[in-house]
Amino acid sequence: MADRKTTTVTPTAKEAKALAKQARAAAKLRRKTSTDPADMGRLKQIQQAYKVTHEYDRQLPFLLLGTFLLPVVVGLVIGLLVDHVVYAIVMGALLGVLLAMALLVRRAKGATYKRYAGQTGSGEVALSMLPKQWISTPVVAATRQKDVVHRTLGPGGLVLIGEGDPARARQLLGSEARKHERVAYGVPVTTLMMGDAANQVPLDKLADRIRKLPKTLQPNQVTDLKARLRALDAVRPVIGMPKGPMPTRASKQATRGR
Known about the structure:
Elements (H helix, E strand, L loop, with lengths): L12 H21 L8 H15 L3 H23 L2 H32 L6 H6 L6 E8 L5 E7 L2 E7 L2 H19 L4 E5 L9 H9 L7 H16 L14 H7 L3
Parallel strand pairs: 3-4
Antiparallel strand pairs: 1-2, 2-3
């Protein structure tokens, strides 16, 4: 039986150019319609953050305008006094832009907390705002009543966060703390209960509370403990509840702690 010969059709230069043009057009359209900040320019990211924040913060445009204009007015006054009006106004405008951006980040964080407050698994929102040194695992344990325990690991040690009905969540939190202590090998396990009652940490204060924990672990210790925690998670039953609400990546970038 004769071997069948396969032939490869090579596109001509004109066809290749047309295909490349179509690919560029498709990529441009995808970036234009995408909600992924990775496909957005910096200005579009800022615009998206402003849009989301304004939904929950109606005073935002007036605050941003006032924050921008104040340094401009001060620069104008100083410029008139020292006879360098243009230079002083330009410097004031640059300072105004920086201050307005800082205010947008701050208000965006507050709007994000308002957006997800009261929703099951909202502790995940606070964990997403921790610096990159922290490795967070939302909903490592849960009850049928949707009480959950989140976990984060970083320079401040191993932290477990309970969320839900205080009685049930504290019981679940205590059980998880004992499990984690068995694999932590001497690393203290900090437990926090999220909520607005006494001895609880509000959602909008949770990330700051974790960031302020004393630094007890070096990066190599974090890596070692992360591997042991992965082994602990591997023997867990599959949790049958959805994870909590997550902010868009644009709001993450705007509000993540540094």
